[in-house]
Amino acid sequence: MNTRLGPRPILWATGCMALALLPHARNLPLWILVGVFGAASLRLGLALAGRDVPPPFVRWLFVALAACLLFLQFHTFNGITAGTAFLALTSGLKLLETRSTRDFSMLLFTIYFSCLAALLLSESLAMFGYAVGVCWVANATFLRLTRTQPGPDWRAGLGASARLLLQAAPLALVLWLFFPRFAAPLWQINDTGPAAVTGLGDSMSPGDITDLALSDDPAFRARFAGPSPPARLRYWRGPVLHEFDGRTWRRNAGAIEALPRFQPAGAAYRYTIELEPSAHAWVFALEWPSQPESADLMLTADSTLELRARAAQRTEFSLTSYPGARFVAPLGAAEIALDLRLPLSRNPRTRTLALQLRRAHPDDADLVRSVLDMLHTQAYYYTLTPPPLGGDAVDDFLFTTKSGFCGHYASAFAVLMRAAGLPAHVVTGYYGGTFNPYAGDWILRQSDAHAWTEIWIAGRGWIRVDPTSAIDPLRVDQRLLEAGANAAAGVDVNAHLPWLADLRLRVDALRELWRGRILHYNPEAQNALLRQLGIPAPDVEKLVLVLAGALAAALGWLTWQVRRDLAETPGDALTRAYARLCAGLAQLGLPRAAHEGAESYGDRVARMRPDLAAPVLALVSLYSRLRYGPTATALEIKAFRDAVRAFRPQVRPVRPPGSRVSS
Amino acid sequence: MARRFGVDVLPHKVHRRRIYILPSGSGLQCALLVVAMLAAGFNYGSNLALGFAFLVASVALVGMHHCHRNLLGLEFDAATTVDAFAGERALLECALGNESGVARWDLEVRCGDAQAIQTAAPLAGSATAGVPARARSTITVSLSTPLRGMHSLPHLELATRYPFGWFRAWTYVQAPLTIFVAPAPRGVRLDASPDARPGHAANAELTGDEDFAGLRAYAPGVSLKHMAWKVLARGREPSVRHYTAAGMQPQWLDWFRLEGLATEPRLSQLCRWVLDAAAAQRVYGLRLPQVEIAPDTGPGHRRACLRALATFGNGPGA
What we know:
The structure holds 2 protein chains of 2 kinds. Chain A is of the alpha+beta class. Helix content of chain A is 48%, strand content 12%. In chain A, the strands form 6 sheets. Chain A has a 5-stranded antiparallel β-sheet, covered by helices on one side. Chain A has a 4-stranded antiparallel β-sheet with strand order 3-15-18-19. Chain B has helices spanning 2-5, 25-43, 47-71, 114-118, 229-233, 263-279, 299-310, and strands at residues 12-13, 20-23, 75-78, 81-85, 89-98, 104-111, 125-131, 135-144, 149-153, 156-160, 167-173, 177-182, 210-217, 239-245, 251-254, 284-288, 291-296. In chain B, a hairpin with a 2-residue loop joins β16 and β17 (291-296). In chain B, α2 (25-43) runs antiparallel to α3 (47-71). The model of chain B is unreliable at 192-209 (pLDDT under 50). At the A-B interface, α5, α6, α7 and α17 of A face α2, α3, β6 and β7 of B.
């Protein structure tokens, strides 16, 4: 009943298995991969030697050994990594006992499940394409293992497998679109999810932002309901850092929820923010965000937004910001004290400088301007590879090394302001961003990370000062141009390779579409789809009804599609094309008589319409040859059909032979 | 079944209403797999994993349609009678015609159910074949035939598990098949033992002193040496020259000469002689209780004799 497999199918099966396990190769312990392919090689060797599979007790020994090792390694069989490892070993051992097509069926199932696990690890479009590709090849391999040998050859197997997948696609789409989704997971998962993602932390030391500046990963996206704000307003505020120990800036412990401290005024920007998964809870908003609508967000006393729970997946929020908002309430004494505090023992030269400047410029605005002038005119350099700093980091930076990036400048500026008696703090976040015309949104990458300063000026409120922007563009490290972009310094690498930048935007737009439409397809999106289909007040019950209807339609289409292949024979196509020709001639008043053969009909038409004689005679003789000659190929019949389609005779009165046409 | 659809005329074209389809064991395993994949997809909230699970489920559903189609419109033809010897295998020649442009794979013609085939029960057997597009294939089903007699099978089963073996589609061809199982040829050879020769003219042999006795109508299987070519050339019926050896009488293979043997060994001996006589192209007749087949020659005659042996007493034990 079951054909014993030769070495060749086993080789192919091993190949399919390798393809299915490839995406897991990095996550699986080496011994599992060695074990799986050791088992495969052993089986292949046995098949080549014409020997049967190892006896059952050997196989059970392997299974027991594998299970013990697995448990020692993972202490569980639940979760993606442990589950995949288990699956990989199972498929390897299954191969060891694969002797019939039925065993191979189990192997095919493990291949499917490996693909599924790969999709749980990576949600990219490419991975989905890969999984479908593996499915295609594995199906073709399995198709070839029919009990009648020889089965379909490789070309036929791959073709049949491709046809199966194409015919399955509409059905799968219907199921995917309308199958009800559950809001909560069915059981608790042990996994921590995707590996920790880089992003801004809740402290800033010199060097922190450098790591980010070289990363191209998207941090978040923003989509404006109206016009986008100009560049000078695109400061996306993240954590606000108040505490300074002479070297590192930190936020004060525990964010305090607060009501907005300003009165909305001026233009409002409405936008949605879509966050990438992050280890932190910041939501980056433009200055100054009003109370958010979402209950998952809270507005802090620093006018920043935070998630109440960490974002494990991508999340989306609607926000409103008022860049021209007025601060009406004065700053509290505790807050003033917090933003003036400096470690007394550190950075003495900076403190002296600040006091000198303060004496020279009693006006707050003058003071700020004088510091920015100093940064602009003196030999301060912008570089991502600054020299190391000592314990008095700000002194070293301002007076010795004179080179650094946004973190150094923001830190130094804030220390100067505090020393001069102006409440100041460092704000970290992102600046600028890239507009993607294909997706219609702004992408903020990790390389857009930035740090700047806010100072409190009585009567005006918090004023943003970006000391980095004061640096002379001539003193920006040219290597930055090569290392990547840092928008903070006004450098744009994309200007040098416009096509590459454009391609990147297109790919990003596609990825965004994939994420927004496919990965984020949820019950709300399902309801929106139903509303688009004209179904009022959609709920799960209606969804199931639509699913049933669409499924019936898809199955009906499938039945028609599958039967059509069967009904269509080249002979039919030939008959149809000839009927079309006859119908065309009948419209000219020359219907074919029932008794007339093709040749005599053609002769008669040629006599009645000498102007059509050449094409008609050619067509009927071709038809006779195809119909009665040696078996016509599909290509010849197609050529005949095309010729019939191209034949468009003019309708004119039929001219009896012998008479003349008067024009 | 036969009552519902009547008897099919061969060649029989498989109609869609006559195709049954059910998931197989591995099909149920596949359903379990899809459920597990869906559970994983829902649990991890992964739309992609769900999509992939739905794709696998859809491939299975499409496979079901392809399984059904694999039988649809096939033309089935087979002999309605088969001759065999007890203890050997009856070879049922079937022809499968595929007019469509789609190749059919993994077709199985079977007599008897799976268990019967596995245990090689009487008259059970199966064979598989594929039919390329617009082509015909022949399948020879070998049936086990342990018992002498005239057997009949009410129907044959045409089945497939293509493409993945997750579904099994089958149809019954209601074409009664008669199998004549002659007794296993046993006993002494016709020439080997002169004493045992039946009939009074058994020692006559075809020698050179044969006389031309006239013309007979040609029957397939007759040696071409005896063809009357000149007669054929004159445009008349194909004929065979018929000789009679001097003093040669038709040879009688006689039941009553084999006294002392039980019924089945007797029939086996007669069967042996029929085969030997036919192989030697002799003129022979068969005499059984209540049945007498007049002396003749040729394959038709041989078949008639063997069938008479097969149906003797309506099978063994009767």
